[in-house]
Amino acid sequence: MAASSVASPLCTWLVAACMSVTCDGDCSTRPSMLSSSKRRPKCAARRRLPSKRSSFSADFQKGLNSAFSGSSIQGLMSSCLAFEPCDEYYSSKGLSSLGSNGLSSLFGSKTGTTNRRQRRFHGAAHSGETMAVAVQPTEERTKQKKPTTRQRRVVVTGMSVVSPLGHDSDVFYNNLLEGVSGISEIEAFDCTQFPTRIGGEIKSFSTDGWVAPKFSRRMDKFMLYMLTAGKKALADGGITEDVMKQIDKAKCGVLIGSAMGGMKVFNDAIEALRVSYKKMNPFCVPFATTNMGSAMLAMDLGWMGPNYSISTACATSNFCILNSANHIIRGEADIMLCGGSDSVMIPIGLGGFVACRALSQRNSDPTKASRPWDINRDGFVMGEGAGVLLLEELEHAKKRGATIYAEFLGGSFTCDAYHMTEPHPDGAGVILCIEKALAQSGVSREDVNYINAHATSTLAGDLKEYNALIHCFGQNPELRVNSTKSMIGHLLGAAGAVEAVAAVQAIRTGWIHPNINLENPDEGVDTKLLVGPKKERLDVKVALSNSFGFGGHNSSVLFAPYK
Length: 563
Known about the structure:
Helix content is 40%, strand content 13%. It is of the alpha+beta class.
């Protein structure tokens, strides 16, 4: 039968009414399966069936489900309107015989002169076409499922630090193993007016061969530390100029954060503004932002993959490390430079933390000032520096013959949602963070036998973390816990990355560094879990590194030997 004979007024009315009921009854509660817009077709708005909708609403819902599970317009019309299509529909064998213009003819011919009423039906034709597509069998889509693939593994193939104990990862870790303290009197400025005059200050540092002189003169130290550590991590990972030519730079990214950003550049700009805006560094705004270090490093390398920074106070580095690993796991990157950098060894930085009453005032004996878990601790010691890890997808690393230091297993973040600077009283956020990290990594509690704790040497924080560790791992007799901060102080946003380097070095060397200054453990602290004043031999199965920050940010990351 010709297509035009099928387009009887009754069939046209049936489909239009069916669409009206479908849109009015279904689109208001959830996104429509029949159209990409929530607006009802114009024809549907005029062709409502108020007297019938209330009487067959139950049948309509039941019929609608069956119609969607089927594959024909006949079933949809029958279920929507509770009676069968006209004889002409059957004699035409449904819509299959209508050809490419079938639906168009069902709603009215698209050729010839049209009046306003016909144009309204033409608007409905688009919805009709969409309906015809939506009710096709769904088996084809279910058959085209993506094949299950094994999760991409992430490994550490390079690392570097800029720290009070050295600017090479091996020199840095050897000093840690020997129990050397990097805490000393601050020399960068006159701090005699401050109650705290000590810190983990970097005494000598050079960017020669790593950063162009024009940038060295203008950049904030946190950026200089970041760029230098980032490039050294690349060199440590064997990313030579020849390798750079071969890798896909669109799948190489940089995610190095900072807690404080370019505080000195911004402070200098304020001082210059007191004279005149003409005296301000024209780069003061971009060089003060926390993201610019990652951006400048990517520009230097030509890396066009994921590039941004994260700032979650002293938990910054772990957030950057875990997010970088996730980019690799999702296939968005093959290589990621990640970590953190901070330098606020300036009057406003020192003064700010003094005002918070967070810093140690043991000025007479700087090397004894940072003493995590010791009953005589009186606050943390501010430090500065940077830490960068080179994370890489396993097969990519193996293909280029890279040395694999360790495997990144996973991690987690949580928030205390309690106080700006104080930890949650019962350590709920830290416990949740550790448990989620273990679950996400597929690691059992018994497998973790080394923890590089956040332990900053504050009265409240040390004990809250210790109790959380006992809650999560107390039954593990092999567990050993230490704090890198006892020797270098608290590097703020860089702390997590520098301590991650220490954890990876423990895996590589089989040695864990001591806790110095732990002379009188606080009440309730079991020294059997804590590393003593000397380095210890340990075959690390899984290493966990914690970092927490102002705002209640908690983070835990896990590393293990590559097997």
